[in-house]
Specification:
Strands 2-10-9-8-7-3-4 form a seven-stranded mixed beta sheet, with helices on both faces. The protein has a three-stranded antiparallel beta sheet with strand order 11-14-13, with no helix packed on it. It has a two-stranded parallel sheet with strand order 1-12. The radius of gyration is 21 Å and the shape is globular. Helix 8 links the parallel strand 7 and strand 8. The chain starts with 16 loop residues before the first helix and ends with a helix. The chain is of the alpha/beta class.
Length: 387
């Protein structure tokens, strides 16, 4: 079946964060919104059909995640990433962000150090900062061909840290960490007794030519000292259904994290998240293959356009995610002036880079999970203001 990713879907007036909060976020209701990390593509038909079928039942009462739900995720991880997971390792959380927040609370106490690798998704900063933990930055290094990890600094920081929250693949810089890179990070953490929380929500959005390595799949030691979060929400546009899976091979760690989730009465979720996840984990391979090819086309279009028309904008092509991380520092403007030009003159709604850490000043994160026509319009607007 051929899926149509060029189709324009009107998302306005649907209580959609990306569209209906433009005035609040950008001070301009007319920006072209390419910020929040959901897609402007239709959720796959087989997911919608599963939700419709369940919705036809006249009672929406309490429910539980059955074997079929967990087996669908197990099958997906084995098929797509060659990671063999056991059902007893798994439990439900109401979204990856909520999940790793609760994991931080379960595994640390106030004052404990939590490491993150900035610039990184804003909730990583909040996981420690909002809960009385000490946030420690292990900034990524911007090299000639892409971002890399600072292992030398990590060696020092892991001597006192309790946890490291890993973004694998990385949002926003788009790195698909190699097995060797993850192994080196893991060896440093294991040597110093640091547990790794691996957010792998973008693991199924690895672009052609690259391969995702689940951190816990590398060896048994890593598996026994890590917590992995997986969800179909980014990959299949199901974010509004708040459903994710936590995978913890170590029974002691699992009891601590799952126990905290249960203590917060956060372990039930909603009926429709369960059936939609099961549907896409079972039937989603063909749709995802076409999606990744389409996103790669958007990435190639933007890359060529910027090189030809706006050479001051620097970037690395993403290896994963549907984001591009664009550096506008070549224009020599202050962050506020750059924000004004982007939102008021170009009328573009991109994520402000400094929200991901100070390393992101005058960067913008651009969401390319949208029809090509939207991408082309965004580039026209950029050129009109910044050329």
């Amino acid at each position: 079946m051929k899926y149509d990713f060029d189709k324009i879907v009107n998302r306005a007036d649907s209580n959609c964060v990306k569209y209906d909060l433009r005035k609040n976020v950008f001070g301009n209701p007319d920006v072209l919104p390419m910020w929040v990390a959901d897609m402007d593509f239709e959720t796959p038909d087989f997911a919608r059909d599963a939700v419709k079928k369940r919705a036809e039942h006249s009672v929406y009462g309490y429910h539980f995640k059955d074997d079929a739900y967990f087996q669908s995720v197990i099958g997906w991880l084995k098929r797509r990433h060659q990671w063999e997971v056991q059902q007893e390792w798994m439990f439900f959380t109401p979204g990856v962000v909520c999940g790793f927040m609760m994991a931080v609370m379960a595994l640390t106490k106030e004052g404990d150090e939590v490491l993150i690798q900035s610039p990184v998704y804003p909730p990583f900063h909040h996981a420690a900062g909002n809960h009385g933990r000490k946030l420690v930055y292990n900034p990524l290094i911007k090299g000639e061909t892409g971002y890399v990890m600072d292992y030398e600094l990590l060696e020092k920081q892991t001597q006192t840290a309790k946890l490291l929250i890993l973004c694998n693949p990385h949002n926003p810089v788009g790195r698909c960490w190699s097995r060797d890179e993850l192994t080196r990070l893991g060896e440093i953490c294991m040597k110093n007794g640091v547990t790794v929380i691996s957010d792998e929500i973008h693991c199924d959005l690895v672009l052609p030519g690259f391969k995702h390595t689940p951190f816990a799949s590398i060896n048994e030691e890593f598996a026994q000292h890590s917590i992995t979060f997986h969800a179909a929400s980014k990959t299949f546009n199901l974010a509004g259904l708040a459903t994710s899976t936590c995978i913890v091979p170590n029974p002691e760690l699992r009891d601590l994290v799952n126990g905290y989730v249960h203590s917060m009465e956060a372990d039930l979720g909603n009926i429709f998240g369960k059936v939609a996840t099961q549907a896409v984990m079972t039937h989603g391979d063909e749709w995802l293959g076409q999606l990744l090819d389409y996103i790669q086309g958007n990435v190639d279009y933007v890359s060529d356009f910027l090189k030809d028309n706006l050479p001051k904008v620097k970037f690395f092509k993403p290896q994963a995610t549907y984001m591009m991380w664009l550096d506008f520092n070549g224009y020599g403007l202050s962050e506020e002036e750059m924000w004004r030009k982007m939102t008021q003159e170009a009328q573009l709604g991109f994520n402000r880079g400094s929200e991901f850490g100070k390393e992101g000043t005058n960067f913008f994160r651009v969401n390319l999970a949208c029809p090509r026509a939207t991408v082309e319009e965004a580039m026209r607007r950029l050129k009109a203001v910044f050329e």
